[in-house]
């Protein structure tokens, strides 16, 4: 067991390096909206980037306020055609408008990372790095006329070797309520964070670390997956996807989304393209009881003035399925013989719940995954075996608002990997956040590997948005 | 003839009382313009003024309080209307207005508060932290708010000597004695 733990201690160090030192943590608040509406970040965020119920409604509404009026938009948009041209279509181009100002925003993150791990010989290895800056995110977000919205994020992140990576994390166009009842039919196309993960993808978490055991589990392995993915390994769920998605809200409280995406493959947690000719499919249905409606409706609801508070319960089911045929991963057996492996069919099904009780928000996901793994000859790619593996992953997170500038969060993650010889991965993530100003945030975050308590990271993070 | 003389005498004696005002300019140094200063006559010994039955009004429209500064006579009830499709809240951190918190309410609804004491109450909305307004409750009905150029007029002030106060949301308050005799000019300068 000690050997296994040491192996995972090393893996933990690699992950600390890969996920904390190099990988970009996308998104935060988008000050372009503050400028557009001349309103505070806290109108939509409990503590950025976590959305409060109003912010969630604003997001789902294509970055429009519920029942928005022209007067609420303080930066007058540039008209690209009088409204009367709508009646003349298709003799004339349907009118649109542009944001009144260039809808850009910048987010900068600086961090001091103290990472401790144990190597094969039992020695403790410590890194203590000033990462000033660790990353910068350039956002573009807004609306284009009545029914279109857009969101883009370009991330620049420094690597430990002194180099840097630039990635388009998001680039998408939304079509908001083009027909039918308002809020019911909306569409998104592009590289996006699927609404499948609404509420728990890292771009909507108050913590610095995302839920790695949920998103970066690597199901590929001779006896099934053994741990979290490293670069170019397979992933269990893509944090981001190149997808076409439909979503909507019915009767104020029923949320649904369905989407089609390029398959999971090599290339890290943001998905890939060109892996094969197949497509993945996903869906989620939620219902919210109590609190503000998911479309911002407050009819018959008495809400407290503290806009992060409410008493509500949102529960949902989610699923993801796909075909990884022809996407090859390199593996070896116990003797070191090379093989290829394909995840011929992967199915994920999960439950989501989020409970708001005043200043407390308790939420989590339980996910069951099944992978039909085909073992192929390394040279001829002839199939030499096929197995079905399963894994289970769940997490629970409690966010608590002590006072609006001071918030804490604790998350427990548990991942039972498919390989039965590997113990479950269990981690604890604790965060203290301090809003120095509405757009400047400091965080102290402790991430502990519960299998080996000398494996931990302590991150001190400062980020600001403008 | 007697009646005409009596009437003329009455008009001559009454005229200064009816026509008196205090007018002038408040120069606000260190702010963008000279608007939003409240000029008011301080409490007058031996005189009390009944609060008006009519309520004063503040609207919340497009995430802004209208007006930004509202002077009222002590005892006045102010109605807070929400004209937006989003929820609004009104509360004050000021003890002189009992740190009231009116909760949240939707579009078209009104909540009210009676300003019982002399007070400069800051009004805030917890739902939209950028929103801010002020209700300045003063002890006499003689008050005015300056325009952007700093000018103001307090009408119908009886002749006499009064303490005239100036309050501003961002600048130091000031006061001085003003003797009103008909139309009377009084200028002020305030700064941080």
Describe this structure in words.
The complex is a heterodimer of chains A (about 475) and B (about 190). With about 475 residues, chain A is mainly β. Chain A contains five helices and 23 strands. In chain A, a hairpin with a 5-residue loop joins strand 5 and strand 6 (about 125-145). The longest helix of chain A has 21 residues, at about 1-20. Chain A is globular, with a radius of gyration of 23 Å. Chain A starts with a helix and ends with a strand. With about 190 residues, chain B is mainly β. Chain B has one helix spanning about 1-20; strands at about 20-30, 40, 55-60, 65, 70-75, 75-80, 90, 100-105, 110-115, 120-125, 130-140, 145, 150-155, 160-165, 175-180, 185, 190. Classes of the chains: A mainly beta (about 475), B mainly beta (about 190). At the A-B interface, loops of A face strand 8 of B.
Write the layout of secondary structure elements.
The complex is a heterodimer of chains A (466) and B (192).
Chain A: H1 2-22, H2 31-37, E1 45-47, E2 50-51, H3 53-60, E3 78-79, H4 85-88, E4 97-98, E5 104-118, E6 124-144, E7 148-158, E8 164-176, E9 186-192, H5 212-215, E10 217-218, E11 227-228, E12 241-250, E13 254-261, E14 280-289, E15 310-322, E16 329-332, E17 338-358, E18 360-377, E19 383-403, E20 406-416, E21 425-437, E22 440-449, E23 456-465
Antiparallel strand pairs in A: 1-2, 3-4, 5-6, 5-23, 6-7, 7-8, 8-9, 9-12, 10-11, 12-13, 13-14, 14-15, 15-17, 16-17, 17-18, 18-19, 19-20, 20-21, 21-22, 22-23
Chain B: H1 2-19, E1 21-28, E2 38-41, E3 56-61, E4 64-66, E5 69-73, E6 77-82, E7 88-91, E8 101-105, E9 110-114, E10 119-124, E11 132-138, E12 143-145, E13 151-155, E14 160-167, E15 174-180, E16 183-185, E17 188-190
Parallel strand pairs in B: 1-16, 1-17, 3-6, 5-11
Antiparallel strand pairs in B: 1-13, 2-12, 2-14, 3-4, 6-9, 7-8, 10-11, 14-15
